[in-house]
Design a protein that fits this description.
Elements lengths: L1 E6 L2 E6 L2 E5 L7 E2 L8 E3 L12 E4 L9 H4 L8 E3 L1 H9 L5 E3 L5 E4 L2 E10 L3 E9 L2 E5 L16 E4 L3 E4 L3 E5 H12 L3 E4 L7 E3 L1 H5 L1 E3 L2 H7 L5 E3 L6 E3 L2
Parallel strand pairs: 3-6, 6-7, 7-8, 12-13, 13-16, 16-19
Antiparallel strand pairs: 1-2, 1-20, 2-3, 4-5, 5-17, 9-10, 10-11, 11-12, 14-15, 14-18
């Protein structure tokens, strides 16, 4: 099992020969309404679209997970699995084989078992995923939400933010710092891959002036038990999780 990071929430996961693209943002700006004066993200450089993809896996329907400019570059025949809102976006963009999963529902793609879990309420509850394959297993949720009813089990890896991000009055909408101890106890992973806040993305706009962050990669690393490693991934690097 291997993972390649694209910055923000984007990953290429390889389970043997099976190649799964997760929440990609590979090119162009990221903007939230009402416009760039409010919030805009810029990648330091565009990334090439991975080749020979088998599946597009989407956790949320927001633009930082279903980035329109990026999804426009993918073949419409590529199978898609996503939350209800993400599946609706994929259908609007013309993808022909789309499976919507609600939390608790499962599907299979080749030898990959996909279980949707309850993710962040933004405002509707979106998805995390438990992915299980003969080549490896991992849990993925981009906002640091872990449902209480997800059974404890040993996993090879967890992909999660490791810092908390929030806004005044709203509170934390990314809970990586808060959830990390729970993830370690629940899944005893061998590897934790930090996500969501990485990739040297440049953010600007009014929203960024009031955004707060708590925690750090160093703080997260200090929490890990013996035998578990933290990867603060670099864009384009392929990590062996076996």
């Amino acid at each position: 099992m291997h993972a390649t990071y694209f910055g923000a929430n984007g990953w290429l996961l390889e389970f043997g020969a099976l190649r799964v693209l997760v929440d990609p943002w590979l090119t162009g700006p990221l903007r939230f309404p009402p416009g760039p004066w409010f919030f805009e993200g810029q990648l330091p450089a565009s990334q090439p679209v991975p080749t020979d993809l088998d599946l597009l896996l989407l956790t949320q329907g927001l633009d930082d997970h279903t980035h329109p400019d990026t999804l426009a570059l993918l073949p419409r025949s590529l199978p898609v699995v996503g939350s209800a809102s993400a599946a609706a976006r994929a259908r609007q963009l013309g993808f022909s084989t789309v499976t919507a999963l609600a939390p608790g529902e499962q599907c299979r793609h080749q030898n990959l078992a996909i279980t949707a879990t309850a993710g962040a309420p933004v405002p509707q509850v979106e998805n995390g995923y438990l992915l299980q394959h003969p080549e490896g297993s991992l849990y993925l949720e981009p906002h640091g939400f872990l449902p209480a009813d997800l059974p404890a089990q040993s996993l090879d890896a967890v992909i999660t933010p490791v810092v908390d991000l929030g806004l005044p009055l709203v509170g934390a909408f990314v809970r990586g710092r808060t959830v990390l101890p729970q993830l370690l106890e629940r899944f005893t992973p061998r590897t934790v891959l930090a996500s969501t806040a990485g990739g040297d993305v440049r953010f600007s706009g009014l929203l960024t002036r009031v955004l707060w962050m708590k925690g750090s990669g160093a703080e997260a690393a200090a929490l890990l038990p013996q035998g578990c490693s933290l990867i603060d991934p670099q864009v384009g690097e392929r990590y062996n999780l076996a």
